[in-house]
């Protein structure tokens, strides 16, 4: 006899979940979002391309980005785009296209490492402040207020001036300041999660503070950390470009910001050398936009109410 | 020797206005294998009593007096460490909101296994087997162990929480409004599960609820609480057929009667008293239509009104008159002395 009530509870999954089930569970909604949200898909595609280009830069770049191009002992300066130099050369004869290719490396390096530290530090601070409350919370949140009070770009410039111009110091500056947004958001989320019955049950059953924080609370807020992480990628790339453009960047690393600065000081605009400064500008724009597109898609995953029917 | 014997339990909440006496000297006991229903309206101290048994009161609550003797040990006097060893293994709880009780990011089975391995000391193999048994016991398919809480319906979630409460074979389960958020059909299924467990495991349950139909369906005994006091404590049969306390009479009026569906529901006017500064005399005197001068002067003790039946009312000897009057709507609207 068919029991209707039990029929509704027929197994939909194998009795023992396979090890990889959790991974696919995490990936499936992401794939769903990408199918629906063209912007997020575009963001992912842009990053995929940038990553491939960064890895294959030595293969893809036709010339050494630092080398001065010459022909028969004559420097090939200010070349217009042609078959040999797709985007022309700079005022001292470096190949612009190769610079653009190599520029993806510092951009992604800064983007991903800064984003990681921003999300990581912010999450830890938010978890600890939110969970322990009391004076721990007060100290950490006042520290966050201080971080909010420091203007970001001047801080980066001062820090880079004190240490030495290096992309790692830009990452350091971001890690020191930009955890503030993540920390605040995570803290407020922790405040609600820690009051929920399963967390209290764990505490009462003898789970220690750290186990409670990292095993029971953290998985419930980790998606927000990812969201702030993806948004930070764009910020980091933009920051590196700004700092380089202002001339405080690492002079030995060719980044898109460096290219813009190089073009600016050598008056490329006045000479109408659009092929020099427009491409790095577009690259910066694309990378930053891609970060925000992914962040936006992720936000939709977190707050389904944002979904349009 | 009862499994649990509560004597003069007092629980205070510290508030800005002073100590709120949420539970004010209540006594009851529970034999092994019995189900006791604690009923009363919001704020009468029933949940507080339940939480006190596990010593999981809110931060501002404390046990101010009395004893809770459970298997020869006074729960009120145990150290926090001893209490922790006892929780879940000997006394466990089915909390009010099953929605909140399961961690949304872990599979239900994972959470159940964690209890069995971390608290029960079972190996992973033994634990999976036991988890399957527990799910079968509460009427859930074992395939469901690999689901996440959001894939469960409200009733299934409640069953899963019951399975977790039973995981370590406790002697006593405190069920705090276990079916309040569920629709009546699912309520019935969950309550049937409790009945089944009582027969199968000789489980003792304290069922906290404001719904007397829940008590009718699952409990052997019932204790009626009002404003931090027990007003009446008796068997389920006597409670429905021969109630003594005016508050019990009023509660029964306020629920629909299947035998007489056209009978109007009569509510008890007014609100429970302020427990920071409770009224003199009987706690129910502000709302009791039968209150006489003595009720405002002295507090009625719990009196043995019949074998196995106690009630706290000065006018218990006039109960026949009270029962007749209590059926009439005017009694509760205007009040008679």
Mean pLDDT across every amino acid position of chain A: 83
Beginning-to-end CA distance, first to last residue of chain A: 42 Å
**What percent of residues of chain A are in strands?**
under 5%
What summary fits the major beta sheet of chain A? 2 strands, antiparallel
CATH class of chain A equals Mainly Alpha
Helical amount of chain A: 55-70%
The top-level CATH class of the largest domain in chain B is: Alpha Beta
What's the shape of chain B? globular
CATH superfamily of chain A: MetI-like
Please tell me the total number of domains of chain B: 2
What spatial form of chain A do the alpha-carbon principal axes imply? elongated
Kindly summarize this structure in a few lines.
The complex is a heterodimer of chains A (309) and B (337). Chain A has 309 residues and is an all-alpha fold.
List keywords for this structure.
heterodimer; A: 309 residues; mainly alpha; MetI-like fold; two-stranded antiparallel ribbon; 2 strands; 70% helix; elongated; disordered N terminus; B: 337 residues; alpha/beta; Rossmann fold; 2 domains; eight-stranded mixed beta sheet; four-stranded antiparallel beta sheet; 13 helices; globular
Describe this structure in words.
The complex is a heterodimer of chains A (309) and B (337). Chain A is mostly helical. In chain A, strand 1 (70-71) and strand 2 form a beta hairpin. Chain A has 13 helices and two strands. The two termini of chain A are 42 Å apart. Chain A has a two-stranded antiparallel ribbon. Chain A is elongated and about 80 Å long. Chain A has a single domain, classed as MetI-like fold (Orthogonal Bundle). Chain A has helices at 4-7, 21-36, 38-55, 57-60, 96-132, 134-149, 152-162, 167-177, 179-193, 197-204, 209-245, 256-265, 274-302; strands at 70-71, 74-75. Chain B is an alpha/beta fold and 337 residues long. Chain B folds into two domains: 4-225, Rossmann fold; 236-334, no CATH class. Chain B has 13 helices and twelve strands. Chain B has helices spanning 46-53, 80-86, 98-101, 108-119, 124-137, 154-166, 184-201, 212-218, 236-241, 246-253, 293-297, 319-326, 329-334, and strands spanning 4-15, 18-30, 35-39, 61-70, 73-74, 91-94, 172-176, 204-209, 221-226, 229-235, 303-306, 309-311. In chain B, the strands form two sheets. Chain B has an eight-stranded mixed beta sheet with strand order 6-7-8-3-9-10-12-11, sandwiched between helices. In chain B, a hairpin with a 2-residue loop joins strand 11 (303-306) and strand 12. In chain B, helix 4 (108-119) packs across helix 5. The termini of chain B are far apart. At the A-B interface, helix 10 and helix 11 of A face helix 4 of B.
